[in-house]
Design a protein that fits this description.
Layout lengths: L9 H6 L2 H15 L7 H22 L2 H27 L5 H13 L6 E3 L2 E3 L9 H26 L11 E4 L9 E2 L1 E2 L2 E2 L6 H11 L3 H6 L1 H4 L39 H11 L11 H7 L9 H11 L4 E5 L5 H13 L3 H6 L1
Antiparallel strand pairs: 1-2, 3-7, 4-7, 5-6
Length: about 350
């Protein structure tokens, strides 16, 4: 609540620190899909302090201010928004950073802040319960739901009408190494679930290859005998990770006098244009060797993605929705306007 003649209470003014921080993490989420956990610690501490501070102010005000303007919205924020964030993370609906962001918002914004600017007071609208963190969440969900609509309209306007037009768009193959998201194609056609591009980068770095290498010599690189003797660190698949490359050096075959299996593969392809291997591209060897699961990627998904990227000039990808972007936009809209859902229904 705003004190008479004041712009806002001190706790509400301090809450505005979250705006530039959430803007920064939204940009990080777009560019890298990586947000350090350390960014949430100071915001969580600030939120806890401001929660106690607001409670003290409401207690001193007494009556309605304590029960309806603080206690009820704070209980909903901590007792409802926090469990929702945890459950969505548990079931895979949110990433770890998304869930932590919502937990922080539940502490920072349990009640509706008020900012007097001239003769106006922001947010312009409130809700009956008055839980601001829930308003931010519903705003973020509405924005997230609108994204497929925007994608669909954009693709339809360009004449790209197909089964994945509301979740992705086409890009040139040479942009793939710098993008996050998921491939929406298999050798059989477009698919709503395909290879995770971070997992692709992990595989290429593990082999010491670039995507251009794969496209230049796919027949040789399908042979698992060309896997490096000492694989490179796969990293976590981030675009910005520091990597080293050995060019995908072939292993040696001790059974025929030390000739490389690369030479043997070339000899086989003269007799058989499409040789079959137990582990094409060495995808099973990769998944067995790394410490982790490559974001749940299966050997088959990785193999099919490589087949697509080895030959197609343009592929469809889904960038996914970096949820911290809708969260930031939901926060900004909530601070200025309020609740989009209530505004739509009322």
């Amino acid at each position: 609540m705003t004190l008479a003649g004041a712009v806002a209470t001190t706790p509400d003014l301090l809450r505005l620190v979250a705006v530039p921080v959430f803007a920064w993490v939204a940009i990080r989420d777009i560019k890298t899909r990586r947000v350090s956990s350390t960014v949430w610690i100071p915001l969580s501490l600030l939120g806890a302090v401001l929660l106690v501070w607001d409670g003290w102010l409401a207690w001193n005000a007494g009556g309605y201010a304590w029960t309806h303007e603080f206690l009820l919205p704070a209980a909903v924020s901590i007792g409802f928004v926090v469990p929702i964030a945890y459950l969505f993370w548990w079931f895979g609906g949110f990433g770890g950073a998304d869930a932590k962001a919502l937990l922080v918002l539940a502490l920072l914004f349990p009640t509706f802040p008020q900012y007097a600017v001239g003769s106006s007071t922001f947010p312009l609208t409130t809700t009956p319960i008055g839980t601001f963190s829930f308003t931010i969440l519903t705003n973020a969900v509405i924005i997230g739901v609108a994204i497929p609509v925007v994608l669909g309209v954009r693709n339809a306007a360009a004449g790209r009408v197909n089964s994945v037009m509301v979740i992705g768009w086409p890009v040139s193959w040479d942009r793939i190494p710098e993008l996050h998201g998921r491939l929406l194609e298999t050798p059989e056609g477009r698919s709503r679930g395909g290879l995770d591009l971070d997992a692709l980068r992990m595989y290429l770095r593990w082999r010491g290859l670039t995507l251009a290498d794969v496209r230049e010599d796919p027949d040789r690189l399908r042979d698992p005998a060309t896997l490096p003797e000492e694989p490179n660190p796969p990293t976590d698949g981030a675009v910005t990770a520091t990597v080293r490359s050995d060019g995908g050096t072939a292993l040696e075959d001790d059974s025929d006098g030390g000739d490389s299996l690369e030479t043997d593969t070339e000899a086989k392809t003269e007799d058989d244009a499409a040789p079959e291997y137990d582990d094409p591209w060495g995808t099973e060897a990769f998944l067995a060797d790394i410490d982790g699961t490559a974001y749940g990627t299966s050997s088959e998904e990785l193999r099919e993605g490589l087949e697509v990227l080895a030959s197609k000039e343009t592929v469809w990808i889904s960038p996914g929705t970096p949820f911290l972007v809708p969260v930031f936009l939901g926060l900004a809209i909530a601070l200025v306007y309020g609740d989009l859902l209530v505004g739509t229904l009322v």
